[in-house]
Amino acid sequence: MGTRLDMGRIRAARAVIDPVFLDSPLYRCDALWDKLGCAVSVKLETANPVRSFKGRGAELVASRLAADGGTAMVCASAGNLGQALAWSGRRRGLDVTVVARRGAPAVKLERIRAFGADLELVDGDFEVARAAAARLAREREVRLVEDSLDIETCEGAATIGLELAGSVSGGDAVLIALGGGAMATGVGHVVKTLAPGVEVICVQPLGAPAMTLSWRARRVVTTDTMDTIADGVAGRFPIPEVLDDLLQVADDAVLVREESIVAGMRMLLEDAGLVAEPSAALGVAAVLEDPGRFAGRHVVTIVCGSNTSIS
Amino acid sequence: MGTRLDMGRIRAARAVIDPVFLDSPLYRCDALWDKLGCAVSVKLETANPVRSFKGRGAELVASRLAADGGTAMVCASAGNLGQALAWSGRRRGLDVTVVARRGAPAVKLERIRAFGADLELVDGDFEVARAAAARLAREREVRLVEDSLDIETCEGAATIGLELAGSVSGGDAVLIALGGGAMATGVGHVVKTLAPGVEVICVQPLGAPAMTLSWRARRVVTTDTMDTIADGVAGRFPIPEVLDDLLQVADDAVLVREESIVAGMRMLLEDAGLVAEPSAALGVAAVLEDPGRFAGRHVVTIVCGSNTSIS
């Protein structure tokens, strides 16, 4: 497969990542099966200290930086990468600065601070935070961590693929939230390598469709604005290298409506007993919008984060 | 240790139990640390097909019954054991009948039926269901599964202890919901064997205190009534053999108020992103009621079930 990912490096990553993030639960959720008309397995990435899958990649970033003698890093984050880097950096004595938008969910900003990172808030959307983080890293001459572009973030996510590849087979579908693309390319690469008959379907909100439009056009398509509750996957400027990888591994990329995302969150909470942030409900939303496509099949959905307010 | 439990049998149980129930997440939850004033690790027993720890013991019961040529079993259940036996029995072609009280949480009764078990409802509390199940098993001449008395139910729970014993050390406390006693005696036996300096604290609702009163009196004490939202641990007639074991392994048994249980559930949901049924919040409730006892220490709480309605 002609992506930037490599199975040997992905397998080796398991030895570097703190075990608290590995081998997350994977199980059939019969209550969702009854509601959705297809067998649904949940890969639960929220039962760890940072409540999202980002710990896997953050561990790789932080351990390599520390091994190289680095002392500080800066990232832009919708909230979950920032928490994860703060957690992984603190354990290794690294200074972590997270640039986030002022409107990010309070629960995410609070946890970034609580994990000991410096938090810089900017007005505007995630792309403004990305630009500000790049400037800050340049000024300070420290490592800029770029989600989805930096290969460690993709390799970390790809370890999820190792854990689920044994449980899927031809005809099954894996539904992956699509934002910057680290999870989709990482998991997609492993699934397509180990279980090529499995359909890899990326799911993005209609309100933040840049990567999906790019995948369909086979070239980078940007959008001027975005509007979605799925803050964790909201971006406007796809990264060309990540798009190239996504074109190799994704069978489809679909867009879902906001009301489907909300319905998916509610179904995960009420029927599966799982707190899911909006991005983590994209897979269920995709089934809700196109039940005929999945009827009678087995789908795996990655519940990738739970950093949301319940009240 | 003079209990009915045996470390060799508990270790061997891991080979029998479906892996989907084993090696459940165990992690520090810093958001609870901030709120409770002590380091809190969560052992999460809800991320599996039956959403409670009861799958471990049910797997042992069902696999041994099937191996012995049995075809049917009957149990009384507050709801979680019934779901678990239904799940484990269905996979082995066993007929499962669950006797439950009509007032049990609807989500539990629905799932018992959905897993294919026959559900018999009785008026009254859990002790009425227990008596009815015993009658039914006698009439049908089939296996009666008695939670906490049948050693498989204790051994199943005890495998949780194997998974957490390596993460606790002298001065730490393990907080265990106390109902019939399977979890408290099973986990307690393993913890006291492998990490004797760890305090084993059982937690029960003030509204259903029979086992705690019995532990304190060192003899069976029954109650005439009970009243608690923690339906999963509500019983009035402690089993003598289980009490004998509990007296060997528990350092303390504490009673908590209903409002503390509700506050614990809310804290787990809002601060930890975890759906916990009332029984699963007893550990947090115990810390809330006596913060000084735990200040600065490390406590492990087993979030033992999530079968509750969120709405």
UniProtKB/TrEMBL annotation, chains A, B:
InterPro entries: Ser/Thr_Dehydratase, TrpB-like_PALP, TrpB-like_PALP_sf
Pfam families listed in its UniProt record: PALP (PF00291)
Gene3D superfamilies tied to this protein: 3.40.50.1100
Alphabetized UniProt keyword annotations: Lyase, Pyridoxal phosphate
All copies of domain Tryptophan synthase beta chain-like PALP, residue ranges: 23-305
Cofactor(s) needed by this chain: pyridoxal 5'-phosphate
This protein's name: Pyridoxal-phosphate dependent enzyme
Species of origin: Paractinoplanes ovalisporus
